[in-house]
Amino acid sequence: MIDLEEKTVKPSFPRNPWIELAIMVFIFFVSGSLLWWGTKTQSALLTFLSILLALGLIRLVLWLRRSSWREFGLKKPKSWLKTILLAIGGLITVYLVVIISMPLVTRLTGQPVDKSPFETLRGNVPALIIGLFVVWTLAAFGEELIFRGYLMNTFARVLGNKNGGWIFACFINSILFGIGHTYQGISGVILLGIVGLLYALFYLGSGRNLWVPILIHGLYDTSAFLVIFFNLDKSSA
Question: Per-residue DSSP letters for 21-53?
Fold first, then answer.
């Protein structure tokens, strides 16, 4: 059984988990407000800025407590081969779950996932190149650092770094991850909440190796973009 309780060196100065929780709420309120505004106005720029703002504020917090992204598992893994194999297994798992879940979610909500924000990708090489750049920077790296890294670890620390705390953190971060994708409609929120839960489970299952969900996330979004680019979703419809 995986032991999720933290086994790390004590920080160089005392931490108050409740203060950390308050800081986390502030960060997500500020960046989340910008994200909501970007979603309401359909502004991709504001959406990207919300992620950059969250990353900047988190980095400031880490700097103030003399830490780094390594705290969340962004460091050289013991085995890159094992990391890549776990990511491939995670990608296959995500696809299988999405294939099974999508018709159920669509039937539940009565609405398909809203793909309209990605319509410009169809047959558009420049848009695809820009999209893939965004996928591997702001989405794969950015969102995983925020959700599976900072958010999960902060929630777990507040709850004492016990197994129950990590399980709670796993679910709450997945719910927030889904809500962060409201531009894909209610079906997109539910489906991406499920996908976020899988990213979190593979993060924990890999011993909190953040490279695993980063690779799964990047590969999944890349393949999804390629499906739209080549109109494979239309031909299978």
Answer: HHHHHHHHHHHHHHHHHHHHTT-HHHHHHHHHH
- 21 close to 158: Cβ distance less than 8 angstroms: yes
What is the rounded average pLDDT of the residues 190-196? Answer: 97
Q: What is the pLDDT of residue 235?
A: 57
Tokens 């848009």, located at residue: 127
Q: Name the pTM for this structure.
A: 0.90
Tally of CB atoms within 10 A around 41: 11
What percentage of the chain reaches a pLDDT higher than 70? 92
Q: How far, in Å, are 92, 177, 235 from residue 172 at the CA level?
A: 24, 9, 36
Using alpha carbons, list the distances in angstroms from residue 28 to 56, 73, 180, 209.
12, 21, 11, 23
> What is the C-alpha separation between 140 and 157, in angstroms, rounded?
24
